Structures are given as structure tokens and as C-alpha cells.
Amino acid sequence: MPVAPPWSSLPSSRSLSDPPSLAERKLADLKAVFAALAHDQRRHILLTLKFRGGEMTAGEIADRFACSWPTTSRHLRVLEDAGLVMVEKRGRERVYQLEMKRLLAVAGGWLDWFRRD
Question: Helix 22-37 to helix 40-51 angle, to the nearest 10 degrees?
């Protein structure tokens, strides 16, 4: 029988002024990444970045989707907040880069629990 990961439950005796534990940080990472992956447009943005060389400008991303610019911008912000993309300002453009290591570390790490015997 698999043993539950050490971060699978939170201690209840923590004070609000205490810094978050490793378990709490890992749970927050899981929540942010899976919330970002929950929307099909955001998953599509990640796949587009992956298959277009790992980086694209905001305009190039927006041109590939039928939704409005404010909607695309919100999706990009969620991905950025989850650490799945990094944004770099180059002149007047914002260039989004896929953070593959973060995606694999968080989502892949969680999936590893189902690959173990």
C-alpha cells in the first residue's frame, strides 16, 4: 500500500505569523498549477508555447485564439501567477516563455504518486 506523501495533510497547530511549512508551500504550488491547468484555453496556450519553440509574444499568442485580448491577458496572468510562464519585457513587447521545469516538477511530481507501487 502506498504511503501518503508527507505534504498531503497540513499541521493544525501553526500560528498565522509562522512562515509556511514545506508541506504548505507544496500544497499551494499544486493548487496554483492545477487551477491554471483547469481551463482549456490555458492548456492550449501552454501547448502552443511548447510547440512554437517555448516562447512567443503576447500578440502572437492572442492572434492564435478567438477570445478577446482582455480574456487572453487574464489567462496569461493566471499562468504567470502559477509560475507556468515567465514574462519578459523586450522593448514594447511582452514575451512569454514556457516554464517547463515548473510544470513537470509540480504536475509531474503529483502524477508520480500514481506511478509508484
Answer: 90
Q: How far apart are CA 36 and CA 42, in angstroms?
A: 7
Distance CA 26, CA 96 (A): 24
N- to C-terminal Cα separation, the chain: 7
All domains in the chain, ordered by first residue: 39-115 (1.10.10.10)
Q: What is the pLDDT of residues 96-107, one digit of tens each?
A: 999 999 999 999
C-alpha to C-alpha distance for 29 and 45, rounded to whole angstroms: 20
For residue 96, the SS3 value is: strand
Of 21, 17, 19, give the one whose Cα is nearest residue 8: 21
Q: How many residues does the chain have?
A: 117
Model-wide pTM > 0.85 = no
Confidence class of residue 67 from pLDDT cuts 50, 70 and 90? confident
| pLDDT higher than 70, residue 36 | yes
Predicted local confidence at residue 68, as pLDDT: 84
